[in-house]
Amino acid sequence: MTTKTPSTGGQPPIHPERQRRVKTALRIFSISAWVTGALLLLLVVRMIMQYVLHLDVHALAWVARVHGLAFIVFLMASLNLGTKARWSATEWLTTALSGIVPVMSFIIEAMRRREVTETFRLDEA
Fold it and tell me: Can you say where in the cell this protein is located (predicted)?
């Protein structure tokens, strides 16, 4: 009796352990991208309130520091995923810079999620 393996469209099989590692790295990357993006939007709102509307934003003084820490985590997560997914330097740099442009981290996260999921067939894992 022979067992059928699912068709991979002519692509070589991906080791399940590699799929697991990439999937974990993608999850960490996605969370850090969303947190960084949300904090960056909050930082932009804070800056508008302070410099344009001349409001007292003392209660939001923590936002810049926390965003900075989140951005460092985002850089490490994107480097981790990029290493596992074997991104080019351009792909990694584009991804890294998306953490400093408002809303861009959400767009790049969705794009990288789609690419990595398709490349490593994570929906099958």
Answer: Cell membrane
> Which alpha helices (H) appear in the chain, and where do they start and end?
16-47, 62-85, 89-97, 104-119
CA atoms in the 13 A half-sphere facing the CB of 37? 17
Whether 6 has a pLDDT exceeding 70, the answer reads no
CA distance 24 to 18: 10
Look up residue 44 and give its two tokens.
Answer: 């932009």
- pLDDT at residue 9 in the model: 58
Question: Angle 89-97/62-85 helices, nearest 10 degrees?
Answer: 160
As a whole number of Å, the CA-based R_g of the chain is 19
Integer Cα distance of 109 and 118 in angstroms:
14
Predicted structure pTM score: 0.85
pLDDT exceeds cutoff 90 at 16? no
Supply 8's token pair.
């991979």
Residue carrying the six token digits 């790295």: 25
Amino acid letter, 81:
L
Q: What is the largest CA-CA distance in the chain?
A: 76
